[in-house]
Amino acid sequence: MANDLPAWFERLSKSQPLDVTSLLRLIALSKEHLANQPTLLDLPAPITICGDIHGQFSDLLTLMTLDIGQRILFLGDFVDRGSHSVETISFLLVRMKYNGDTRVYKAFMDVFDYLPLGTSSVQLILTHMYIPGALVNNQLLAIHGGLSPAIHYLDQIRMINRVMEIPSDGAFADLVWSDPEPKTNGFHLVSRPPTIRILKAI
User: Fold this and answer.
1) Which domains does the chain have, with CATH numbers?
2) Measured between alpha carbons, how far is 164 from 101 in angstroms, rounded to an integer?
3) How confident is the model at residue 196 (pLDDT cuts 50, 70, 90)?
4) Which of 132, 109, 115 is nearest to 55 (CA)?
5) What is the value of pTM for the model shown?
6) Serine/threonine specific protein phosphatases domain spans which residues (predicted)?
7) Which stretches of the chain are DSSP H helices?
8) CA distance 201 to 184
């Protein structure tokens, strides 16, 4: 499977999507790689941190051409709004594995809702990608969502078993789904359809 990575990377760099079989193999390879990573990665600076991409594949390719160094930390949503979600997620997964290190940090929950691939295999694998968080220079906590009132020490994050479906509540869910709210002091629960509840905090 690893022998296919250079060809996949070259194809995606030219904005040519992978076929379903290749994409499934890529996802399975990436899932195995990510599952073996610690829940909280310790990363040195300098590193470029990138927010939401939302399927804007052309923007992603432009980012790759900028002089920002080789190390990029992706935190935001990769899919769901742009018209090239499959290409975006495929490119990042290939880049992660092809470069030999973890460059994708993000919860993939609900990504399958936007893939134009009507297969249960894609849906099942993408909901269990086991994406870790990161601590940069032992100073900056980088996670997809936000803080949790249940987390007081970094070791509590390190102990989270992320090789599971993200629950609807608790510390793990907070780290993935919580959002900042400028007008709120402390934490409070709000509803996010259909069933997810998140914590908001300043």
Assistant:
1) 2-144 (3.60.21.10), 145-202 (no CATH)
2) 22
3) very low
4) 115
5) 0.70
6) 18-200
7) 5-13, 20-35, 57-65, 85-98, 120-126, 154-158, 171-177
8) 6
- The two tokens of residue 176 are 């993935």
- Per-residue HEC secondary structure of 37-66 comes to CCCEEEECCCCEEECCCCCCHHHHHHHHHC
**Coil vs helix vs strand at 180:** strand
Can you read off the two tokens belonging to residue 172?
Answer: 């793990």
Q: Which pLDDT does position 76 carry in this prediction?
A: 65
Is 138:42 a contact under the CB 8 Å cutoff? yes
- Best CA proximity match to 197, nearest among 183, 179, 185: 179
Tell me the C-alpha distance between 169 and 149, whole Å.
Answer: 12
